[in-house]
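subagent[fold] <- orchestrator: predict structure for attached chain, return tokens only, no commentary.
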Amino acid sequence: MDIIYLRDLRIDTIIGVYDWERHVKQTLVFDIEIGMDNRKAAAHDAIEDAVDYGEVANRVTAMVEASRVQLLETLVEQVAALIQKDFQAPWVKLKVNKLGALTRAREVGVVIERGNPGSMG
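subagent[fold] -> orchestrator:
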């Protein structure tokens, strides 16, 4: 399996269930792994045959900044669906850290994996 990844993509957004969270942007840190078969892109040396990770970052950032969901779990599912649909990714893994969610923990967040990495040939 081939994996394209983005690490430490930081996005500020409104998220949370408490009243104060609905008025203050919080920073979310995304680690994104996208499973793809990269052989065609490698053979043709053409961005048209590859996942444009800059475009992934732009699309995810726009979605997250515009989002007003309460739960991190909801947002992560929406981002996974966006990547799978818009970038034809058969497999995606997301780790999202909600910075400062707990003062006693360095990181708090959600990790999900969607799709079938075995379907990539």
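orchestrator: received. Logging for downstream: DSSP finds three helices and four strands in the chain. The beta strands are 2-13, 26-36, 91-98, 109-115.
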